[in-house]
Amino acid sequence: MQNTITKKASNTPRKSFCAAIVATAIMLLFSYSADAAEPNKQMLIPGGMTFGAKLSYPLIMIAEVSDEADCPARLAGLCAGDCIISLNGEEVCSPEHLSELIKRSNGSAIAVKYRRSGKEYTATMIPKHDGSEYRLGITVRNSSAGIGTVTFITEDGLFGGLGHGICCKESGELAPMQYGTVCEVEIKGIKKGTSGAPGEIRGAFRSLHTGRISANTKAGVFGLYAEMPTCAIYGPTEVAAPSELVIGKAKIISTLGDDGPREYEIEITSIFEPRAVNEKGFAIKVTDPALIERTGGIIQGMSGSPILQNGKLVGAVTHVMVNEPTMGYGIFIESMLKAAG
């Protein structure tokens, strides 16, 4: 049994006002109305470049509970996805701090305060000595990381990407976020998708942080680049209202290697009514032979790839159909803009 995992978030930035500034800027610059007059149509730069997203949690989350019958956490009713707030009234600030508090108990009963689905509970546990130290029988983490694709950028460096939220695999809920960072990704290879086995972009995070994430929402992640990416293949492009989408040919922009963002042909096969109300606004099918040959269709890491139709930015790739990797779903760009504020 273990108390912590090796994966650890970086130190919390002290300048918390930065996040507030970014959030305010997003609210002002991403403001959008489908009923706006034609001269006021919003213009965004389509993305298509990969990015690494790192989220630091405000609390320590239980990633796994030991299946041993005498596991203290299991006996107390805790489960994966629960967030630990404090031990014996002392706030837990890191996985290392959690281990230290358990050690300090010297085997005495511990009052563990935790959060589950927005509600707080307290459970009493007696740590178990495994021969080397006292443990509660849990593995914890305080961060998430993943690879996605930028959907759009403003001329001021504000961006939106992914087309869906970063969720905790333990609970399926949106990952709680204290702060988030963006970094460049070095693509190492492609795992081709097949029926029943989704593919993925395999990459490594570069150490240089290129921006900050200020919001993790069901419709995507949003933030601010420190410097504008230089690899966009389009300039400012008009945003399409949901009513402008039609069934038929479209294009996506994705990055799959050192060749940078590239356009690939798809078809919008159906549009779900009412429009722009959830993350799956329409269905798409990859038709480009080059993309199918390279990836098998839509793969993990392509989420957020901008979708263009009739010269306008209409949305982003969000999900793949597991049993048919050439088919998937898109989210309306309006849904992303509304989620951004």
Fold and architecture overview:
The protein has 341 residues and is mainly β. It has helices spanning 17-29, 72-76, 95-105, 289-295, 333-340; strands spanning 43-46, 50-65, 83-87, 90-91, 110-116, 119-125, 128-129, 134-135, 138-153, 158-161, 179-191, 200-217, 220-225, 237-238, 248-255, 261-271, 282-286, 306-309, 312-321, 324-332. It has two domains: 18-57 and 146-340, Thrombin, subunit H (Beta Barrel); 67-136, Pdz3 Domain (Roll), CATH 2.30.42. The chain has five helices and 20 strands. The longest helix is centred in the first third of the chain and has 13 residues, at 17-29. The radius of gyration is 22 Å and the shape is elongated. The two termini are 43 Å apart.
List the helices and strands and how they pair.
Blueprint: H1 17-29, E1 43-46, E2 50-65, H2 72-76, E3 83-87, E4 90-91, H3 95-105, E5 110-116, E6 119-125, E7 128-129, E8 134-135, E9 138-153, E10 158-161, E11 179-191, E12 200-217, E13 220-225, E14 237-238, E15 248-255, E16 261-271, E17 282-286, H4 289-295, E18 306-309, E19 312-321, E20 324-332, H5 333-340
Antiparallel strand pairs: 1-9, 1-14, 2-3, 2-9, 2-11, 3-4, 3-5, 5-6, 7-8, 9-10, 10-13, 11-12, 12-13, 15-16, 15-18, 16-17, 17-20, 18-19, 19-20
